[in-house]
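Much of the work behind modern protein science is quiet bookkeeping, done one molecule at a time. The fold becomes a row of whole numbers, each drawn from a learned catalogue of backbone shapes. The protein below has been through that process, and both of its lines are reproduced in full.
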Amino acid sequence: MSNGHPQVEPDIKRRSETEMSDYPKGIKRLLREYLSEAYERELRRELTRLDESFAEWRRGEISNRKLDDRIHEYETGPARALYKAYNYGPADMAVAYAVVVGVLDQEEVPKELLEAIERPINFYRSLQERNELRDRKGRWWSG
């Protein structure tokens, strides 16, 4: 909070506008669209994992405390990593990463967008080929 006003976190659209100035308007729109789609897919994957913990808790397989620990791990781990990746990093890099690791199927992404982000895609592919690509949690990507 500063000057009595709460700090507002940047949203995907606002952040993307300032970091995508080198792209034409149509590509910026596609980047925002596929950035949002990739974020939603990764978030769904992580929330599904968290939901499995709730199911274990409801069945009495884990304690309240264990569930609370897993919720905390989710908030400080995957949720935070995804939020940072999709709200603070360059949009073209986030979309390229999502294509390379399979969050977005290359066949579903418009050709003009793939061409526009060819360099970031090639960057991540080169990391992947050298087994140096990491997942959002900093682990080596195995998928």
Observations:
- Residues 1-10, 12-18, 138-143 have pLDDT under 50 and may be disordered.
- The chain has one domain: 12-129.
- The chain has seven helices and no strands.
